[in-house]
């Protein structure tokens, strides 16, 4: 998990970002990213600075975010009930440490509803060309909530961790996909079908 933090700093030119939103299942990813930034600073590899860490979880399974919001060190296990299956850990082993890392950094946490998860998956696909799994939808939705609540300033850099491909969770989109075309396996036929969909406004 720590390499995610190392790579993030490297891709930002040797600087840690001021805000990082992380999807939480067991909680380890958030804690390790925060630790990676601290290690890089301790060794003098990046400038000293504060990175606020934010936990993102589904409303149907969000015990870490609940700890953060209630500012309690006591994790209350829950029975998962969410389409974000990769985050559906009701009794996360590193829950306390994720809570501590978020609070100590000055960060926070936010839940995402099922509808927000799916809508955010579509937003990522339309605007960035990223087909993320449901965990990615959780992170984007939670980030939007954090910005709207004023927890994260709109004018500061934000790193949003998208951790898996949408090919892992395509079932959540089956009843929401409106463009369906059957074609012969020829490139020219594909190109024409794509052009037709674009002309109708079905895709961007």
Summarize the structure.
The chain contains 7 helices and 4 strands, in the order H-E-H-E-H-H-E-H-H-E-H. The protein is an alpha/beta fold and 204 residues long.
Order of neighbouring strands in the sheet with most strands: 3-2-1-4
Taking the sheet with the most strands, its summary is: 4 strands, parallel
- Assess the beta-strand content as a share of residues: 5-15%
End-to-end Cα distance, whole Å, is 35 Å
The string of secondary-structure elements, in order, is: HEHEHHEHHEH
What overall geometry do the principal axes of the alpha carbons give? globular
Oligomerization state: single chain
Task: Give the topology.
Blueprint: H1 2-11, E1 19-23, H2 28-42, E2 52-58, H3 63-70, H4 95-105, E3 108-112, H5 114-128, H6 134-148, E4 158-160, H7 187-200
Parallel strand pairs: 1-2, 1-4, 2-3
Task: Note down, in words, how this protein is organized.
Helix content is 43%, strand content 10%. It is α/β, with parallel strands linked by helices and 204 residues long. Strands 3-2-1-4 form a 4-stranded parallel beta sheet, sandwiched between helices. α2 packs across α4 (95-105) and α5 packs across α6 (134-148). The chain is globular and about 55 Å long.
């Amino acid at each position: 998990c720590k390499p995610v933090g190392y790579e993030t700093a490297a891709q930002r030119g040797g600087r840690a970002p001021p805000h990082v939103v992380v999807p939480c299942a067991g909680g380890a990813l958030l804690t390790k990213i925060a630790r990676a930034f601290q290690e890089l600073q301790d060794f003098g590899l990046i400038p000293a600075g504060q990175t606020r860490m934010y936990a993102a979880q589904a409303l149907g399974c969000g015990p870490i975010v609940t700890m953060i919001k209630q500012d309690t060190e006591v994790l209350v296990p829950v029975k998962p009930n969410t389409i974000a299956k990769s985050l559906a850990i009701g009794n996360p082993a590193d829950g306390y440490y994720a809570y501590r890392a978020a609070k100590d950094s000055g960060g926070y946490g936010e839940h995402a509803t099922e509808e927000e998860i799916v809508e955010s998956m579509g937003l990522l696909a339309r605007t960035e060309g990223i087909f993320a799994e449901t965990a990615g939808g959780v992170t984007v939705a939670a980030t939007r909530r954090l910005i709207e609540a004023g927890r994260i300033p709109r004018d500061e850099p934000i790193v949003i961790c998208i951790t898996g491909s949408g090919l892992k969770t395509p079932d959540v989109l089956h009843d929401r996909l409106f463009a369906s075309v059957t074609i012969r396996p020829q490139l020219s036929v594909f190109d024409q079908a794509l052009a037709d969909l674009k002309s109708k406004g079905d895709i961007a």
